[in-house]
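Dear Dr. H.,

I hope your travels went smoothly. While you were away I took the liberty of generating a structure for the chain from your last submission, since the lab meeting agenda had it listed for discussion. I wanted you to have the full record in hand beforehand rather than looking at slides cold. The sequence, exactly as received, is reproduced here:
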Amino acid sequence: MDPGLMLTLAPELRPFRPQVEAYANAKIQRFAYMFANRLNPNLTKEQIDYVAADTMHNMAAMQEPIQMMPQQNLRLVLRHDCLSSGCGDNGCSLCQYNPSRICKRNLKQKYLIDDHLRAKCGAGLRVEVVDEIGQCMSEPVPDMELEVHVLNGEKYKEVCPDNTLLNNAQLRGCIIQPNHKKPLLKRESAMGVAEDTRIYLTVEHGQAPLSDLQCTTSSEALLCGKAPTFRLLVWAIDRGSGAAVPNVTYVVSESFVVATKRVKHAIKSDIPSIGDHISKLVHIGKATVDKLQDIRQAAIEENLDLELPDELNRVDKVGRWGLDRQHVVSCMPTCSSHVCQHGV
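The corresponding predicted structure, in token form, is as follows:
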């Protein structure tokens, strides 16, 4: 047979092959009857049907082989191009006091409701399809799209304490079922959002952006416990059947918290600046901030005899903490070593 006569079904039509073939066969039979009548009006309908059926049988024998996706082991990863101006070297004298430091994780530790999912440095997040050596697969994977879910971070930690791979049933057990009235994730455009609020991502050149996604619900309001966490799950599914693609490993993000907007000003600084308010240091709450307004009085309450000049009696900025932290720690034991390290 002439290979040039072989027809290839478009990839987007392959999930509907039976319907396409039934329609095409009906059109071919109708064309065959009218064409044969033009060539030889003396042919009977039975003769035309026989020739048409025999020809279609021969065409079926020439049908293209179904091109199976190569069973190369692939996996999904989360990445971003860090916008930090620091070099990442802890011993660098130029970057030692630079608050813009290379991100150690992709997702931030805390988001506010309606925040876009971006890295701490402000860079956009993306999902990449990579091969066994971590190279992004720029070639398209036929009939594949990505599905995004929000996991109960605390439950995931219980089921998977060592970050091992889970099966589909275990993963589904950690998925927080979305509320149809208020999904856990939304995107600015309605593209890729199903009626049941599930979000789908289209992979182009081996990657799909995540930064247009926004969190809609506080993790503390939805889950029990103190500062409970969410995680993102992204897995690859077949566009036609919705089944998981077996040779593409899912990815689960780092844990993160979603807080209400009323705590915006209480969020701690990752790298505090000397001009930041003292409350930006970790483990310093309202009670400690109040004590730092009059350190001499705080010392009296701790039965300590502490003499301080007036200019050191009040700590309201991180820079002042660096000068006065020894006096503060002596009269306020609640200020732990974590605070000292964070404020240096």
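Two observations you may find useful: The CA atoms of residues 50 and 199 lie 51 Å apart. The first strand starts at residue 74 and ends at 79.

With kind regards,
E. W.
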